[in-house]
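Reply to dn_fold:

You asked what the input looked like. This is it:
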Amino acid sequence: MNKNNKRLSKDYYLFQAAFFSSILGARCNQLAVAWWALSQINSAAVFASLIAYASFFEVFSRIIFSSLGDQIDRKLIIIICNSVSAATALALIILSIAGIFDFYLLVFLIVISSIATGVRSPLESSILPMLVKTEQVSEAFRFNKAVYSVVTLIGPGFAGLLISLYNVQLAFIIDFIFIIVACIFVLLIKSNTHPIKNSNLNNDINKGSKIFIKDWYHKTIYGIRALFYVKPEFYFAILAMLINFALYPFFMILVPVFIKNHLGLGAWSVGLVDAGFGVGILLASLFLVKKLSDFFYRDIIIFIGTLLLGASLLLSSLLVNPYIIAIVMVIGGAGLMLININTTVLRSLATPEHYRNRMMAIVSAFSSLSLPLGSYFAGLLLSAVGITYTMEIFGAIIFIVSFFILILPSLKQVSRLPECDLKGVYYQIYPKAFKDQL
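and this is what came back:
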């Protein structure tokens, strides 16, 4: 850890510990659900539909509840969401131990968990600037992505070993424990994570549910409206939507199907491939993003990242050795972080504070609208052309999308500004986007 990281606050590190714990638990849960479902259903297409249901409700919740983080204490919402995730994990423990597999009950539990994830995910980004100084925001996000990369690195491998050596029940139990630990870490945070009160919209829930609901409605509508006015974020959302269309089903559906059904290998191989992706995320978070930022503008780095991500997925579809695939995935993970860190830092700094969670959530939601469609499309392609061609098609989609980044002029306008000039710059360029600006 470098000297700059040491200056970050205690609350920031507590939150990173909570973030690490909750994401690690989620990784155990995802692989356990996938392996359990595939072993019971024996149909890649039906499994794809299960993931499609989950992704639809996760996206839906990000839109509907996007304004909550700008109305209510963000720490409180995260604790509530983690509690819901813990409850669903406990239900999965009971069902798996009892040997009860009901597809529709599993769908219900995954939908509930996905809603909690959809509400929590944007908060895990929008809360960070409240825990550090303004000049530390960029570093805070880089460290946050480094933590995420470590989880991505060890999580799938850890879950794969648990399932291979023991069973899915243990993976569900570990998920439950990690979520509870995450709640404890969040409870220890002392920083004020209440949103800024807005003078034009009364967001004090103590004055009555009608006022709160009216405020929620207006804030949600204004958040969606802001996305369409702020052209860079709108284009980022569209580009991310196309990337997510291929990337989400690639790892959630295609990799498990490819490993289990096509190669006939165990769950450890899924963990190995995902771990390779995590190594790339870690390398980019700690070194590559910072190094490239010394030579290239943000939009160029985003282009490079998208190109690398698409190329790695496309190449992996031509391989059969899980160790070589894992090495190729290092390139993909690095590419993803070149995209995510640069867009997240830009969005966090350029958006007015009391719009930050909405912008994070709405962009995340719109960019994720393609998740259920991509999952459903993956199921159709699996049935029509098989696993290899499906992987090639999804990799090619991201590779082609990368070139559109170079032809969008509004992205250059803000992505080439120095970090010191980004604070609230969206309000300066697009004042009509923020109707209830303080």
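DSSP finds 17 helices and no strands in the chain.
Hope that clears it up.
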